[in-house]
Structures are given as C-alpha cells and as structure tokens.
Amino acid sequence: PATGPWQESSVYRSGINLNEIYVLLTMINNCIISVCYNVIVSVFIFQGAKKPFNEVIRANIGDAQAMGQKPITFFRQVMALCSYPELLEDDKFPDDAKQRARRILKACGGSSIGAYSASQGIECIRQDVSRYIEKRDGFASNPDNIYLSTGASDAIVTILKLLVAGEGSNRTGVLISIPQYPLYSATLADLGAVQVNYYLNEDSCWSLDIPELKRAVTEARQHCNPRVLCIINPGNPTGQVQSKECIKNVIRFAKEERLFLMADEVYQDNVYRDNEFHSFKKVLFEMGSEFSSTVELASFHSTSKCYMGECGFRGGYVEVINLDPGVKAQLTKLVSVRLCAPVPGQALLDLVVNPPQPDEPSHATFMKERTTVLANLAEKAKLTEEIFNTVPGIKCNPVQGAMYTFPQIKLPQKAINKAKEAGQEPDMYYCMRLLEEEGICLVPGSGFGQRKGTFHFRMTILPPTEKLKIVLKKISDFHVRFTKEFSE
Ligand SMILES: Cc1ncc(COP(=O)(O)O)c(C=O)c1O
Q1: Which of 266, 267, 306 is the best mutation target for the ligand 1 pocket, counting ligand atoms within 8 Å of the beta carbon and taking the most?
Q2: How much is the pLDDT for 31?
Q3: Contact at 8 Å (CB) between 175 and 262?
Q4: Regarding the domain delimited by 22-67+370-486, which CATH topology (the fold level of the hierarchy) does it fall under?
C-alpha cells in the first residue's frame, strides 16, 4: 500500500536497504507473504533506486486485471447501469444489459445497489447460482443452501469458524494440502484450530493420494480431532486438476473418516489441455445416495478468477450440502452479524452465473471475450512449462489448471548455506536476488509449504504473452547465473 504503517519503518524512510527488508520479511508471517512483496515493490518505486531493469514485473499475485486483462464488456455495462441507473436511458447500452440491470435493481432495497441486502444474499441471485450449479452438474441445487459472500475467502473463513471447536486433544483438526494457499493456514492459526498437513505428490503432477491422507489423519488423531478436509481444485499454487477417480476416492475417504469436505473450486473454468473440471458436488451425487445424503460438503466459487478476474468486486458464494439443520441455523446467524456481502459483488456474481444467452445481443461478444482470455491462459500455461523444463535445475509439472506454476528449483549447497547465514529460507534468498537483479517478483515456495529439502517458487501465468516470454527468459538466465555463482 502507498500509505500505512510501512511508512513508520526505517526501510521506507531511509531508502532501499535489502537487509532491512529481509528482517521485515522474516518478521511477517508466511500467510501474508504477497503483502510483503507489495512493500518491496513500493520501496523500489517510491525511492527511485537505480536498478538494472526498467520495471518491476509482478508475477506474484493472481490478480488478472492488475496484469492488464480487460474486464468482460457485458459485466461492466450491467455494473455501470446498476451503479448509475440514469444510463438506462442511454442508447449505447444493449437491451440485454439493461434488462439484467433492471432485474438486479428490482431485487435491491430501494432499487439501489447501495442498500444492504438479505444477509444470505439477494434471493433471485441465489436462485441464479442454484440454476448455474444444476446446469454445470446435472443435479438439483437448493437456493436455501447458497450463501453469497465477500469473495470466496469470506465464505471459507466463515465455514471454518463454524466447524472449529473443542479443547486440547479434542480441538478440531483441519487437513490442508501442502503446498497450500496461505488463507487456510492463516485462518486456522487465527481460529486456534489444528493444521493437519497432507502432502501432494509432486512426482505425479501434484496428485492427491489416499495413503497420504490416511497417514495425515491417523497421526493427527493422536493429538486432535480431525473433522475437516480441504481440497483446492484446480490447485493453487500447484496448478493441477484432480481426476474424477481421485475425487471419488477422496469422497469415500471423507465418508469413512467422517470428515467435512471443503472444496475450493474458484478456478473451475481455468482448465487447460485435455483436463476436465469435475465439481465435488457432481461427483458426490453421481456416487449415489449412500454418499450424497450423508457426506457433508461446502463448495466455493468466486468472481475473482476464471475468465472474469474481477477480484476487486469481492463476489463469491458457498453451497452447503447435508449440513445439519441446527448447524445451518448457526451459519445463517453467523453471516447475519456482518449484515451482507457487498451488493455490487453479488450483482457481478449474478452475471457470472447467468451470462448472456445465445439469443441475446451481447452473447457473441461475451463468448469471444471469454474464449480469448481462457485460450490465452492455456497458451501461456504450455509456454511456461516448456520453457522452464529446458533449464537445467528447474523442474516444472504441467500447468493443467488455475493460474500458477510451482516449479522445483535445485539450489547449490553454497547458496543454501549463504541464505541460512542470513537467517533466510533458501528460496526466499533466491527470489530476493531475482527481484534485485531482474525486477521480477515471485513468491518463494516456503510461503506455501513444501517437502523438507525441496525448494520452489510460485509464478503466475498472468502477464501478457510477450511480457511472460521476457519473464521466463529472465528467470531462466538468472537461474543459470545463480547456479554458476554458487557452484564455483
Ligand atoms: C485457492 C483460492 N481460494 C480462494 C481464493 C480467494 O479468492 P477471493 O478473491 O474470491 O476471496 C484464492 C485467491 O487467490 C485462491 O487462490
């Protein structure tokens, strides 16, 4: 941020001093590592330090529009109309956009998106979400089970809050994948829940293996009460897409072990190559009533990712399945305390789940824009894997989905020693050197968790293709140089 407590720090006041930034970074928890990077970028920009590059390229955060992706025209037309209804008289806006805006406004208090909504979310939008899920999965969805939220983050935190209880060895344990998305570890720490790690299998494209889940849950039972299993599919930071067979096995495991499933599916349209996204809800219902009437599931979606990239609107939802009615009543109470999710975010979510239809004037443009974004991402996913795998010492799994790559980097022992002397994780040292020498911002693997003795970084595939090519070249050259420097 341009302003804030950072300004109190001597780093900010006295100009660029990487040693101080290192200290600052190690003081800040992993969970907000990307925030740290914002600080570093600000220091570079605000201090005007002389560096061997013209710009800092931020490949650290999954924020598509910040990386130049254009918003979907139809979405912004409807949002403009909802925000300033006088525009409904303007001929520049297509009829279907006006129709959507009128429908949304009619559902708002005082016909204004500036009014609070029902705490669970605007009813007609929850109905649209249900219809979207039904169309996606081929199984019924009940709008009473949909809660609109402030991005997916808010819904994830709310559901975890609902599920965490107990004391001592009876405290709720929550299984999360390693590498993980830091929202989970941060929330569990905040709630005082027990984080139970299960490792994804890097050697088979970050697959989720049942024996590893079994190991994690069995060990955890000795000191806590494992009750929840979180899955991110498609994966962040690892970019894998789980097969239907894998999801079935996970559901069977959850039933056997009486675990509540949390399926984070915010990247559900970001699926490349021949992979296919299967929602947990669909697979659960395909497995028959033995599972679909017993296994508890919360699945999450968002306006922030996929082809939309509308992170700033903070739109999202959770669908809950097989929640005990008493627990559901508590959930409703919990969301009511905070009044409601942002109404503009709810409106935008409505457009995501109910986009222009083939017989509507905006359909062709919408489809063209959507397809272009997703095709570009698919192309960049392939390019990233191909280029990284040509570099000795970088090993990159296929980017099957989401917006990230999480390659393993081989670091010379001398570099590891050097980092340790400075009290740093070796991959943090690597990323800081890359930032300093090439102006490229990545996140070290240690921010997400990784098997001991392995090192990674996470890079987004969001920069425009030409810029991404430059980024990949710079990282490749840097890696060779860095390896040589510490091998001599
Ligand atoms: C796996 C995962 N879940 C949830 C979120 C949060 O998304 P939102 O912007 O909807 O809160 C992110 C954001 O990067 C994510 O990667």
Answers
A1: 266
A2: 41
A3: no
A4: Aspartate Aminotransferase, domain 1 (3.90.1150)
